[in-house]
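Hi,

I'm pasting everything inline rather than attaching a file, because the server keeps stripping attachments. The sequence lines come first, and each chain or strand is labelled.
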Amino acid sequence: MRRIQERDEAAFRELVERYQNKVYSIIYGILRNHNDAEDIAQQVFTKIYFSIGSFDFRSSLLTWIYKITVNECYDYLRKRRVRKLVYESDLGDEETPGMERSEPDTAPLIDEQLERRDLVLKLLEKVSPEDRNLMLLKEVEGHSVEELARMTGMNENTIKVKLFRARQKLLKAAERLMKRKGLPLKVEQG
Amino acid sequence: MHEPVVDGLEEYLAGTLAGQRLAAFQHHVTVCGECRRLVAALPAQQAMLSELRPPRPVGPKPGFYARVWARIEAERASSIWSVFLEPAFGRRLSYAALALLVVLSVAVWNGPGQPAIDETNPMVVFAIDLPDAPGVDPGHDRAVVLTHLVSMGENGDEAPSLPVSSD
Ligand SMILES: [Zn+2]
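And the predicted assembly:
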């Protein structure tokens, strides 16, 4: 029994060491804070440990881990927003009030960049977790349609349809948000 | 309905859409306002999403695994009561409760002096012979999945084939 336990721990350790940088960098990309990235990465692997028995092998392990990681980030943002709502009466955005900024702890980001990051996090919150993950895997991680098909176990046409719809939904969410804020839709690039 | 754009959009964005498919794409965009609007907005959408890329390679400080393991141990220790909520344990607990209920009902039904358990009663047999519930024991499943995943090596970015449990 003890040997089995030791073997499982060794396998788990290998899994952690294989994916720790990936998980950390996904979280850091979203929150831009090393303390948050460390804490949420630990939480992600704890979750993986307790729920790996339910991994169904239909998608790749990376896709499953990616999903857990992004969900944890959004859970964290939601909780932080609730905390902020409790302590502050001043609500920012009506529909997604006060998606608080991660305080960057590296080079100070300029306000415009922070605005853009807030905006994209808010927009991604308006689409389903599946659409969100697909868009992130495509645009942030840079995977091709072919790779996404292999990773998710879906065919390429299904991926194309899902990406098209996810892009449409994101655009509509952006249009609604900009309209409410009275801003032009065009977002500066670069 | 938006077929040429659905089919060619990602390649169009990557600059690799060509020939007939590019022509069909461009034609559709000129006749479909919805797709025209989407295509026009995509460079901005891509630029926005790229904000979530980490500026440089990052990773946790050394000793990350030990910190994860400490957290797992802490969570295990602090949630001793949650064992009652684990599916496998919960199921066994329900079976045990059901078994007790059946045994008591049979005893009451038969009255004093009668055999307390009728082993030909399918409900009693079912209740006594607690099923092993394979596949719902988190510890067992964790071991099977972990062993399989690690034996697969570095190929974590592809959907793997289903594992075959050795027991
Ligand atoms: Zn169209």
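Chain A touches chain B through 79 residues (CB under 8 Å).

If the labels don't parse on your end, tell me and I'll reformat.
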